[in-house]
Structure formats: structure tokens, C-alpha cells
Amino acid sequence: MMETVMSHTLENKDVFAEIITNNAEMFSIFQYIESIAQSPQPVLITGETGVGKELIARCIHRVSAVNGSWVVVNVAGLDDTMFSDTLFGHVKGAFTGANLTRRGMIETARGGTLFLDEIGDLSLASQVKLLRLLQEGEYLPLGQDKPKYTDMHIIAATNVDLWLLQRKGKFRKDLNFRLRTHHIHIPPLRDRLEDIPLLVEHFLEEAAQALRKKKPTPPKELSVLLKNYAFPGNIREMKAMIYDAVSRHKSKVLSLDVFKEHIDQGHKNNFEMLEENISAISEFHPFRPFRELPSIKQATHMLVEEAMRRSNGNQSIAARMLGISQPALSKRLKSRAKKAS
Hints:
- Keywords: ATP-binding, Nucleotide-binding, Transcription, Transcription regulation.
- The chain has helices spanning 2-7, 24-36, 53-64, 80-88, 105-108, 124-136, 162-167, 173-179, 196-210, 221-227, 234-248, 257-276, 278-283, 296-310, 315-322, 326-340; strands at residues 43-46, 70-74, 89-90, 102-103, 113-117, 138-139, 148-149, 153-158, 182-185.
- By secondary structure, it is an alpha/beta fold.
């Protein structure tokens, strides 16, 4: 219902068709994209890895209806020289081995869109050059004294906190402000739980076609299991999980084993990270707000209750959340019910 109502307010519904969602915040992002589509100012897209930042950037390019090309540059790992050569190009003889003039990605993107991914990894020296490009629309190919000008649109993306980098002196304040003239933050998948069943169906269909298999039937427990996983890799991680499950699939109903293995490994990695960072455990300890600590028995009861709530009463999934066997959880529940009666 939400998708139907919200999509009616969009003028470019087809542009966003590739993004599988029924989330109100995502539809608000689509509306915002349409409102800024004709603006020549830069756009900064933020969000965790795997949320679809490049997909959103392509939507901006398509809605803007510019005549030029869509050009992508991942700046991670580029030192200042490589960044300058990649973006600005060079003239013949600019440096040893420069036997031919090379036009940069900026010239390729003329009249179109240049998407700079992983912008938080850009060196300070390169940040100065990018700021000049944004402010003046001019740049210097390596080995050339006369500036060149461009009319392309710049979209940048990052999964790191630029404000934090700025405070640490690793990102220029003026560039940070300039880039986020228009800002889009994409919510993580764990905040878009209503999208999980839609994405499961979409990737099952896609994986089946890609692997030339019949689309398997997902078990009813799958959505509940996935909704209780944090998905640090977001949609990209879910896609990988489903492709792996379909590749191993041999019966009519899709097995949960691949998903359980992946989630167990994810939980193990999270706990190992917390154990390595005692300060994080102290800062976010769930019992810190309590004036009086619950007893072990009370705390266990609270954990069991919450696990059963999150799993919609599925003991197998609840037990997996708690790190115990299903028989052990069943024994606890029976004991509690016996005492209550």
C-alpha cells in the first residue's frame, strides 16, 4: 500500500524501479532526488557499505537528464599523482613515460556526471584540487599551465563519517561543507525490515535465473531469521547469502543452513570485535542505565523473553540468538511455565 501511495507522488517512477523497497524513508529520498535533480551543486551520499550508494547516485544522474556520460572513479588507494592523472589527465611529456596525451575522467564526464566513490579516503593534497574544481569549475591536466573548464555534475559517496575525519584533521572543513550542499543518507537494511521479504524474493528470482535453476520456495522462518540479523554488509551481504544458498539448493524448499552458518559467523565476529574493544562494551553496556542490577536469573529471563519476542515464538531461531541449543531453551521455557502454573 505504501509503495502504491508514495510512488504516485514521484514523477520519475521508472528511474527508481531498480531499487527494491517499501520503506518510507527510501521513498522520501526518491522525492528529495527529484527536488534537487536540476541543481548543479554537488551531492554527498553517505551510508554503510552495501546499502546501494552507487545505485542512488545513478538515479540522480538519470533524473537530472544530463546529456553527458556517467563516469565512476573510486578514489580509495589513489595517491595525489594518480588522482590527478586519473581525473585531470596529462599532456605529452608531462612525466617520464607520458608519450601520449591522456584525457582524464573529468573530460570524459563533460556535460554528464562524475561519481567519486570512497571520497573519505582522498588525500589532503587531492582534496585541495577537488575543492578548486568544485568552486571554480577548473582544473589543470598534468604538465599543462593553462586551466581547463568543465560543466559536469559531481556526486560523492562515503561510508565513513566525514565530520569525524574533519575533527581529526584528515578531511578539509571547506570541502566537507561544499560536498554536502545536497546530502542523502541511506538507511541500513536493519532499519528497513519491511524490505527484507521483498529483497529475498527479488534475489531468489535473480539467483535462480543466473544459476539456471528453478526458483526455490523460501521457508517461512527465513524472514524472521534475517530480520534478527544486523547485516553489517547490508543488501550486498544479503545478495551474497541468497546466491550461495541457491547455488547449494537441491530440494523444493530452500534450506536455512547457509543462512544460519553465515549469521553464526557474523555473530562470532561481532563478539570478537567487542572483546577487543573493552571501552565499547563499557559505553554501550545494556545494564548501565539500571540503578540496581538484575540477578542472573532475572537477566536470563529477560533475554529469553526478548529472544522469543524477536523470533515470533520460533524456538529454533530464539535459541540461535541466545547461543544455546533448542532443547536447552525448550527446557527453560517448560520450567518457567511449570512455575507460573
